[in-house]
Amino acid sequence: MDGKTMLAYVIDKERSGAVKEVAVPEPGDHDVLIKVMAAGLCGTDAHIYQGEYYSEFPLVPGHEFAGIVAQTGKAVKRFTEGQRVVADPNIFCEKCHFCKQNVQNFCQDFQAVGVTRDGAFAEYVVVPEGCVFEIGAMSFTTGALVEPLSCVVYGQLRARPQLGDNVLIYGAGPIGLLHLQLAKRNGASFAAVVDVKAERLELAQKLGADRVLLSGSGLDDELRQEFPLGFHLVIDTSGVPKVVENAVAHVKNAGSLLIFGVCPPDAKINVSPYEIYKRDLKIIGSFALKKTFQPTINLIENQLIDVAVIVGEQIKLSQLPEQMEKFVAGKTAMKTVVTF
Ligand SMILES: [Zn+2]
Ligand SMILES: [Zn+2]
């Protein structure tokens, strides 16, 4: 690919992104060059675009993607041109303190495709061989959703519902709907879902929600009345600090609260430490993912989780600058996928 150019969506400064002609990246000896076929737009991309993340510009974002192997580095043994693949965007050094203790998501030399190095909103992307997974006949659009589901799988490995548990999920957006399906697969006997949008709740019902509640001023009373003992597991996917604060009251004694949605870094909530002590509560975080790509591919390949349902619009790369503006303004429905 020496000297060849490609189209890429480049963010060159805060709130400024455009599709440009740039050089096709060169794979190093241990890298794979992937021809991108589909790439999903994620909340992280919006944070990067708005300069609210640790990314440095210029940057090609895009960390949820699928494509075809276009070229392999000299030392690559497991992949050949033409294979259909996805890639875990998280690159771990496997040498540092945290990697050696199997908490690679806190790698001290952490790199992420589309976050700290150029990503997949481009015709081609380079990733280390160790991050690449075969997807067989899975569609590329579905393949682009392996990453978000992998994060959800990681979250529920950390806060796993036990057989027969009841679960409350805040948010019926793409991530909330994945949590809902996975919680049912994990053995939850009952799942309630809360959202501000009625049409999203309808979708939640189709995907197995046993009870849906429209969020509003009376929500906490409604939950208290209907579920006075609360829920074994409460999952927040809203990232709204007030929602997380109110969620604590609906965790059953000895239950868990999984904080999955991304709250603003400087936000604070009011929680009574006495309540956490007295009621045996667990408050659990979940950052990115760690080695959950393969189980996630297995879940999708065997149709145990419907990921296609979270796709909103499919657009072309040329439409991405405009779509990004719509996305940060909250004017897109469900997940946008760029197809090539
Ligand atoms: Zn993402
Ligand atoms: Zn490391």
Automatic annotation (TrEMBL):
Gene3D superfamilies: Medium-chain alcohol dehydrogenases, catalytic domain (3.90.180.10), NAD(P)-binding Rossmann-like Domain (3.40.50.720). GO terms for molecular function: oxidoreductase activity; zinc ion binding. The lineage of its organism: Bacteria, Bacillati, Bacillota, Hydrogenispora. SMART domains: PKS_ER. CDD domains: threonine_DH_like. Keywords: Metal-binding, Oxidoreductase, Zinc. This is 2-desacetyl-2-hydroxyethyl bacteriochlorophyllide A dehydrogenase. Belongs to the zinc-containing alcohol dehydrogenase family. Its cofactor is Zn(2+). The keyword RNA-binding does not apply. Residues 17-338 form the Enoyl reductase (ER) domain.
